[in-house]
């Protein structure tokens, strides 16, 4: 994918997958069970967003097991990421991984997007197969700064929802993820 990662960052990503595989046995964090399958489906899929990040502050909506936010935070140590999920077992796992890997650029918040009220807004909201784009647009409107973006990862290509008073569809990009046979697309929306 042409992503230059220092060896220490690659080690952190692999340590994350080790923790995910271990916790997954008890907490059912992902349907993918084997680490070799997690590399394309989770790590590379998440890192496909790297070239679309603009700004310094990002929020991962419905982060679940930390995807896509945690791999992006490892690859972008100069940026700040908030991993938001309403599920307690998932946020406990995320807090454990953040402590274990010493990731100072991540905050983990247990809340629903509609209820979360941060002190400062974000340059972009990231979402990976969380909800339809129209639902996401309504859920994150108060979280993203004017001029910011919503980066919504979806499986199949679909028409964008209608623009709203707050959001305008910018484009849909097909993502190429090595080792992944399923379709991956990124819908990009601009916050007005």
Which helices and strands, and how do they pair?
Blueprint: H1 7-27, H2 35-47, E1 57-61, H3 69-75, E2 80-85, H4 88-101, E3 106-110, E4 122-128, H5 133-140, E5 144-154, E6 167-174, E7 185-191
Helix pairs in contact: 1-2, 1-4
Compressed to H and E, one letter per element, the order equals HHEHEHEEHEEE
Helix content: 25-40%
CATH C-level class: Alpha Beta
Rg (CA only): 16 Å
Low-confidence stretches: none
Number of helices: 5
Q: Give me the oligomer status.
A: single chain
- Binned strand content: 25-35%
Word description of this protein:
With 192 residues, the chain is an alpha/beta fold. The chain has a single domain (7-191), classed as Vaccinia Virus protein VP39 (Rossmann fold), CATH 3.40.50.150. Helices cover 33% and strands 26% of the residues. It has five helices and seven strands. It has helices at 7-27, 35-47, 69-75, 88-101, 133-140; strands spanning 57-61, 80-85, 106-110, 122-128, 144-154, 167-174, 185-191. A seven-stranded mixed β-sheet has the order 3-2-1-4-5-7-6, sandwiched between helices. α1 crosses α2 and α1 (7-27) packs antiparallel against α4. The chain starts with 6 loop residues before the first helix and ends with a strand.
Features:
7-stranded mixed beta sheet, globular, alpha/beta, single chain
Short description:
The protein is an alpha/beta fold and 192 residues long. It has helices at residues 7-27, 35-47, 69-75, 88-101, 133-140, and strands at residues 57-61, 80-85, 106-110, 122-128, 144-154, 167-174, 185-191. The model has no long low-confidence stretch (mean pLDDT 93).
């Amino acid at each position: 994918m042409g992503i230059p990662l220092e060896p220490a960052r690659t080690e952190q990503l692999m340590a994350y997958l080790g923790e995910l595989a271990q916790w997954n046995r008890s907490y059912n964090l992902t349907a993918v069970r084997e680490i070799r399958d997690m590399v394309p489906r989770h790590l590379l899929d998440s890192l496909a967003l790297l070239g679309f990040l603009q700004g310094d502050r990002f929020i991962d909506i419905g982060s679940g097991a930390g995807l896509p936010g945690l791999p992006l935070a490892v690859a972008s140590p100069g940026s700040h990421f908030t991993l938001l999920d309403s599920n307690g077992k998932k946020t406990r796992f995320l807090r454990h991984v953040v402590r274990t890997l010493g990731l100072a650029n991540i905050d983990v918040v247990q809340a629903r997007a509609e209820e979360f009220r941060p002190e400062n807004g974000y340059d972009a909201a990231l979402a990976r197969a969380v909800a339809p784009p129209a639902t996401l647009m309504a859920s994150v409107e108060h979280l993203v700064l004017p001029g910011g973006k919503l980066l919504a990862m979806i499986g199949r290509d679909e028409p964008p929802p209608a623009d709203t008073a707050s959001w305008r569809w910018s484009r849909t990009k097909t993502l190429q993820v090595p080792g992944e046979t399923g379709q991956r697309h990124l819908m990009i929306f601009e916050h007005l």
